[in-house]
Automatic annotation (TrEMBL):
It comes from the Eukaryota. This is Retinol dehydrogenase 11. The chain crosses the membrane at residues 12-30. The lineage of its organism: Eukaryota, Metazoa, Ecdysozoa, Arthropoda, Hexapoda. Keywords: Membrane, Oxidoreductase, Transmembrane, Transmembrane helix. Pfam families: adh_short. InterPro entries: NAD(P)-bd_dom_sf, SDR_fam. The keyword GTP-binding does not apply.
Length: 340
């Protein structure tokens, strides 16, 4: 005889499903609260921000939020067509939302490819020539790839773009940044706490670590933190942060299978922030002074969920200084080989 579910069996099942869905929704609400938001809305008129990788993802959302607060934003992008498209999108959204009633800030696109020292030098030169003063440099641009990729100078891209490109940029702007007390924001990641090391033996080389994680990426995000520490020690006004796991173009090289969608969709929905949510951490770092003598990159503090928290990683001073020296050498090596 076929099984016909009775009310007595259907009702508990319905309660279980509703209870499960309710718990997920509550957990999501809890997460949204925990992720935090920037509450300040003061005007940023007369303030200039330079943001790398401003055309999409976290850089785009940061740009949008700052320009709405009337800032001038220099959008340092490797692809000028994408930068222009991003500007049009921001202006279009502004018009739709505000019907053009309140004036917002200024958007200036500039070409910067962090995978080329020549491009970094050109960008730094143009910035110094055309922008007499800027208040904040946001080193946001970054990537994670699955197949070997190298910069123009031959460094694997996690090291070359995520670390060395921004290292050279700051070096070239050094006097200006120190003289004007310009804030430097370093976008790292909590991945610096997971299976990350500064592998000096293989620095700049593509290495297969045989891990499920992209260790080259994690290592580069640890470099970001070490780098922020050294900047702080050397007198820069620096903030380091993790935006959290966010839904952006960052995962463009990841090709999920259909069953990944099935298995991971609920987890992803719970754990993944929108780019706008993740960008709150960058906006916070760029606009609020939260670094103190007690809480700063040297004492292991970084911004996460729009507040300061301490890294679980045990930093050591020798690694910090050695990474700096190796980075200087990597740049010098490339300058010498390009002139000989
Ligand atoms: N999304 C996350 O879950 C997450 C989590 C922790 C930390 N982060 C960090 O957040 C930062 C921004 O990531 P996102 O999520 O916004 O990624 P995204 O959407 O992929 O945006 C990355 C930006 O960096 C630019 N970029 C890449 N390579 C470049 C190069 N050689 N020169 C100049 N610009 C370059 C990209 O330009 P194109 O558009 O031209 O490629 C793009 O504008 C990265 O540093 C990343 O490590 C992200």
């Amino acid at each position: 005889m076929p099984f016909i579910p009775s009310e007595a069996t259907l009702l508990p099942a319905a309660y279980t499903v509703a209870g499960f869905a309710g718990s997920i929704a509550l957990l999501r609400l809890y997460k949204l609260r925990k992720w935090g938001r920037v509450r300040s809305t003061f005007s940023l008129r007369d303030k200039t921000f330079v943001i790398t990788g401003a055309n999409t993802g976290l850089g785009y959302e940061t740009t949008k939020a700052l320009v709405r607060r009337q800032a001038t934003v220099i959008m340092a992008c490797r692809n000028m067509a994408k930068a222009q498209a991003a500007i049009e999108k921001i202006r279009q959204e502004e018009q739709e939302e505000r019907k053009g009633s309140k004036s917002s800030g200024t958007l200036i696109p500039m070409q910067l490819d962090l995978a080329s020292f020549q491009s970094v030098r050109q960008f730094a030169g143009e910035l110094q020539r055309t922008v007499p003063r800027f208040d904040c440099l946001v080193n946001n641009a970054g990537l994670a790839v699955r197949e070997p990729e190298f910069t123009r100078e031959g460094y694997e891209v996690h090291y070359g773009v995520n670390h060395l490109g921004q290292f050279l940029l700051v070096e070239l702007l050094k006097e200006r940044l120190l003289e004007q007390g310009t804030r430097v924001v370093v976008v790292s990641s909590r991945m610096h706490e997971i299976e990350a090391e500064i592998d000096f033996k293989n620095l700049g080389r593509w290495v297969e670590y045989g891990s499920r994680l992209n260790r080259l990426y994690n290592n580069s995000k640890l470099m970001n933190f070490y780098y922020a520490r050294e900047l702080y020690k050397r007198g820069y006004n620096v903030h380091v942060l993790c935006p959290g796991l966010c839904h952006t173009d960052f995962f463009r090289h990841y090709e999920p299978k259909w069953y990944h969608y099935l298995l991971f969709s609920p987890i992803v929905w719970l754990m993944l922030r929108s780019a706008e949510q993740g960008a709150q951490n960058i906006i916070y770092a760029a606009t609020e002074s939260v670094t103190t003598p007690e809480c700063n990159p040297v004492t292991g503090y970084f911004i996460s969920n729009v507040r300061m928290r301490r890294s679980k990683f045990h930093f050591d001073e020798n690694t910090s200084i050695r990474l700096w020296d190796e980075s200087v050498r990597a740049i010098e090596r490339s300058s010498t080989s390009s002139t000989t």
